Amino acid sequence: MKKQEKQNTARRDFLRGALAAAGGFALAGCRQTEDPYALNRPAVPGTAGYGTHQEKWFSSACSQCWAGCGIRVRVVEGRAVRIDGNVAHPINRGTLGPKGQSGLQVLYHPDRFKGPVRRDGPRGSGKWTPVSWDTAIGEIGKTLQDIRSRGESRGVLLLDGEPRGMMRDLWSRFATVYGTPNHVDHRAASDGGKLLAMAYMHGVPEIPAYDWNSTGYVLGFGASLFESWCQSIHFMRSSSALRRNMPGKRVKFVQISPRHSTTASRADEWVDINPATYGALALGLSHVIVRDGLCDQEFVKDHTFGFEDWTDAAGKKHRGYKDLLLTDYPPEKVSKITGVSKKTIERLARELVDHRPAIALADGGAAAATNGLGTAMSIHALNALLGNIERPGGMVVQRPAPYAPWPDAGPDEGAKKGLASERLDGSGASRLPLAHGCIQALPDAILAGAPYAAQAAFLYRSNPAFSKPGGKRWTEAFQKIPLVVSFSPLPDESTFQADFVLPDRTYLERWEVVEPVPSVGHPIVSFRQPVVEPLYDTRATGDVLIQIAKAVGGPVGDAFPWDTWRKAVEERLQSLLNVEDSSIVAGKLSDLRKGMEKDSGWWSPGFKFEQWADAFRTPSGKFEFYSQEIARKLAAVPDLERELTARGVVTRGDDLCLPHWELPRFSGSAAEFPFTVAAYRGIEYAEGGSRHVPWLREISLPRRDAWKQRVELHPDDAKELKLAAGDTARVETPAGSARMSVAIIPGMRRGMIGIPLGQGKWPPKPDDTDPSGGYALLANAMDPLAGILTLQETRARITREKRT
Amino acid sequence: MSTSNPRILVAAGIAALVVLVGGGVFAYSRYKALPDPVTQPVLFNHKIHMDEKLGLTCDSCHKGVNEGPHATIPAVATCIKLCHTDPQGTSPEEPKLREAAAKGNAIPWIQVNKLPGHVYFSHVQHVKFAKMDCKECHGEMKDRTEPVSQTQTSRLDMDTCIDCHQEKGVSTDCLRCHK
Amino acid sequence: MNPTRRDVLKTVVAAVGAAALGAGEALAAEPAKKKRKWGMTIDLDRCTACQACVVACKSENNVPCAGPDQMPLDRGIYWMDMLAIHEGSHPEGRSQYLPTPCNHCENPPCVKVCPVGATFQSEEGIVGQIWARCIGCRYCTTACPYSRRYFNWSDPVWPEEMKNHLNPDVATRPKGVVEKCTFCHQRIRAVQEKAKVEGRELEDGDFRKLPACAQTCPAEAIMFGDMNDPDSTVSELGRSPRAFRLLEDLGTRPKVVFLREAKWKE
């Protein structure tokens, strides 16, 4: 009976305990109100809608992932009570995913910072005192000015979680005029492989788009299309149509992955594969296609470079892709590497050819490996062999929104010096010649103070101490940086290290124009507007960055002439006026805005295929099996042979510039750590985690473990370890250890454990010894040349812990 | 047969007691059910607005009665735009209207006719379609010179709803009115 | 650990689901202009198990979160739930996912056992629940063969700020009360009232995506409508050879129809 009572109060306590913020943002406990059936709040006092039963719907754009879905928000007397998809928007057409549905709990999260604060106590203490915006911006501006006048501008790090769009452009502009090469995004740890494959094979540094609706076959290499794929909602709509909207025809979707994921279970066929061997399978499939003369000869001849052996201008002979495939990747060999039977390899290759146009695609996670770049290139090259690039039903290059850039603000002499420096994360330099960024390399560089010392760090939509390997290394590194500024609306692991927190507005409170993740190829921008009055004394980071630039003054301030972020955005929107074949053909900015306020965005729907100049911006103007850009970058590395040997790269010569495969390199010995970790992002995953959103927490499966960090095991493995569902186990890897709840998943392969990323306790506590999120268990290993973080090559052991 | 059978007397006594106590509790609960009168932020005068000179009707302002569940109160801006751009009299209450409008705020009226949180009531169904007169529930508003401080309808309870629904042959499906 | 009711249901669902393939009986196509009979179809060939429906339902219907202490006790409330069904184990193992709202049976066992008349079938076939009348005896949760009814073990709780997102159209339920899916009847009522005001007849398109789960579904797997209208989307889909209903042999006559092909075919 007593136990019962305790349980009855537990639901009350969770929200007090789990959602009450660290740092003294205590919640008022909820008492039963007079009317138990109406916990409804009165209207927001002071708003125009108060007491009038006024109900309004606002169109805006979601920001719970980067997909950029259009939304409609129902606002009753000043309170946002419902988010639904906007039927007008081409990405989601009125539908919305679970993350989008949860936005209200982000807006009304009790732990949000109520205004700007300054650290009050040692780094990481989580103690803050309020500070005025003017003081905070003034002090930050002054410090940045000093750093710049000392000639150390390169030591300023801009950690920017926004992968594209105007906000990224604004940070980029700041980096340029201020003079730091260290504008670092998160992509090396997310879709880095896909991005680099595009950059080197197409000359387009943007992930691909796909003409889903006309495709005939989809082959996913670990692509979590129904989970954390960057355009999951769009793909779900398409897959549904591909399966059921064509009478008598059903397009097949085959998923290849070592973990039997939700996507794998919803696919038409699941192909089991050894971890980190996707690249080998792609090369094996390509071998069969080329061997049997089934590739699109015309496309390969007219639009690709490096298929046949060739001789360069200097008369040097080079190996072609065809020779690499036919010599090195026969199905027998590939079958041994991947564990996929020779018969299946032959059949899948045939199916790809027979069902053209087919799409072969990788996930960021699939190419997240020490052999990541080669893997991503091998998978992507299948599309070229099949001639499914820039053609209906195939892969297409995303056309960017046609807005003009801001007037050029060139760096001054001081800034030029800073910009010419090597990046602190080593990308682009001889340490990581093929990388476009390598955020996970930062802690070591900061702690070593080499090649130079970090002076300041800005965290925008970025919580690397939680969402990148190395947890504690990050907090130690931040402690070495004299000034850390966070723009996070919520307290998190990295923000605990900040000197100032300048809380951003949530996406339901700010005005913005965003560029969605590539979807179908034609230009789309999504439009965001405040649906409620800002709840607290917060400012949109766009505005704050402009104000900081002005506080730095000089040429930096001059480059930001706008009073507000909105004016800066509207300046560029001018170029969307009078665009023929667009969703809103407006002559005036106000008309354009009105249209976007209704449709949640602007787009130019007509897509023209076979625009080769758009698709291939390589030196050859063609799809490059042999990437001349890789060749150029490697040629610039002094003593490449020594570097390759030192880094354990086995491949040599032309093969480094072609799609190829290297043996995966697992961290930890199989004897000491018998399990392979399959770290994955579920549907509820959002960058930085979704652990603070109760609705998303509670869609975890199995439900019983929803609020725990869980480790997934095969039933027989669990039996051997004497573990039952719900037991607490300690998971140890060479990188760290954590307590986790055991979930028994019959689909898990033996010797593999599944660890969903982004879970963990909320609120985070500064002194927490048990790391959250799963990343702390992952080895900080990467593609040795391209800097892509591996998510697949960590080994682990599990032991049972006593029940608490 | 004797009328002084003690058993009958005791039974009658108990019955009387039950009726008395029960009635008392019932009456008390009814008495308690009436909330204390509230003081509204503006001393709005319905009579002035509804007399022959202006001739406004209930639905001139409470437009929602013909449109949806809520009767609705017009936004302050509407009052200003239609009539109160300039002072319309000498009432000290009128400037409050313009003050609120200048700040973009609404007047924080206190709701007095409250239904339990699990009940759905639709004005449009009753006013527009059932053609009920507003005063059946809200009393004779056009004679009031002060704002409503207490509910004017005697019984906002399920008995009243059901009786009327049955009498008029309207559906008594639970989901019509429960939410 | 003993199998819970949920586990048992999963097994049964897996077995019956497979057996019922292709055996889905066409829904009774009765003459039009009858009273409406609300029903839902869920196409498992479209469903991607994303659970947008689960969150949309929680948001629309003010369903409270259970929290870390109550979740391990299986006390989470999901008017729309996602059942994960695992068959066999790796490498032969397969998983299936089943979105499960209340089936709104035409012959509902839960209604028969309610001692106080708190649960009932509405004129339009919705199995409703009057929160204020429920005494929390939980006979109905036991009687429901699908485990689609939930008991509130404690008062619903939201942090003060999060109370702002509560939907004013749906009452919250206190401790000691059983709650369940209502097919978003508040939305049905609103759309019917609006059409009446506008003097317009309602069409199938007005209902197809009316409930919150159907509206948000990215794969458009969930459809809603009038099963008494032979031309409605749900009636049409209900006649599909892919149609089946859960535990049909119990005679509960569910108004939620699932659709599934046995296998991908060329």
Summarize the structure.
The complex is a heterotrimer of chains A (804), B (179) and C (266). With 804 residues, chain A is an alpha/beta fold. Chain A has 27 helices and 29 strands.
Quote the distance from N terminus to C terminus of chain B.
57 Å
> Can you tell me the residue ranges of chain C where pLDDT is under 50 for at least 5 consecutive residues?
15-32
Low-confidence stretches of chain B: none
Helices of chain B, by number, come to 9
In oligomeric terms, what are we looking at? Answer: heterotrimer
Give the overall silhouette of chain C: globular
Instruction: Tell me the greatest interface.
Output: A-C, 96 and 77 residues
User: What is the beta-strand fraction of chain C?
Assistant: 15-25%
Radius of gyration of chain C: 18 Å
Spatial sequence of strands, sheet with the most strands of chain C: 8-1-10-9
- Residue share in helix of chain C: 25-40%
Q: Sheet with the most strands of chain C?
A: 4 strands, mixed
Could you give the distance between the termini of chain C? 43 Å
State the secondary-structure class of chain B.
Answer: mainly alpha
CATH fold annotation of chain C: Alpha-Beta Plaits
Radius of gyration of chain B: 23 Å
Task: Output the CATH class name of chain C.
Answer: Alpha Beta
Percent of residues in helices of chain B comes to: 40-55%
* Major sheet characteristics of chain B: none
Number of helices, where a helix is a run of at least 4 consecutive DSSP H or I residues of chain C: 9
Q: Roughly what is the average pLDDT of chain B, rounded to an integer?
A: 84
Give me the secondary-structure topology:
The complex is a heterotrimer of chains A (804), B (179) and C (266).
Chain A: H1 2-19, E1 55-61, E2 70-76, E3 79-85, H2 98-101, H3 103-107, E4 117-119, E5 128-130, H4 133-149, E6 156-160, H5 166-178, E7 183-184, H6 192-201, E8 209-210, E9 217-221, H7 232-244, E10 252-256, H8 262-266, E11 269-271, H9 278-291, H10 297-303, E12 304-305, E13 310-311, E14 317-318, H11 321-328, H12 331-338, H13 342-354, E15 358-362, H14 372-385, E16 395-396, H15 413-419, H16 442-448, E17 456-460, H17 464-467, H18 471-480, E18 483-486, E19 500-501, E20 512-514, E21 524-528, H19 541-552, H20 554-558, H21 565-573, H22 589-599, E22 601-603, H23 612-615, E23 623-624, H24 628-635, H25 640-646, E24 675-680, H26 694-697, E25 710-713, H27 715-720, E26 728-732, E27 737-744, E28 752-756, E29 795-800
Helix pairs in contact in A: 4-19, 5-15, 6-14, 9-12, 9-13, 9-14, 16-18
Chain B: H1 6-33, H2 46-50, H3 58-61, H4 76-82, H5 94-103, H6 123-129, H7 135-138, H8 158-167, H9 174-177
Helix pairs in contact in B: 4-5
Chain C: H1 5-19, E1 38-43, H2 52-60, H3 67-70, E2 81-87, E3 94-100, H4 109-113, E4 119-121, E5 127-129, H5 139-143, E6 149-151, E7 178-180, H6 185-198, H7 204-207, H8 212-216, E8 222-226, H9 233-238, E9 243-244, E10 256-259
Parallel strand pairs in C: 1-10
Antiparallel strand pairs in C: 1-8, 2-3, 4-5, 6-7, 9-10
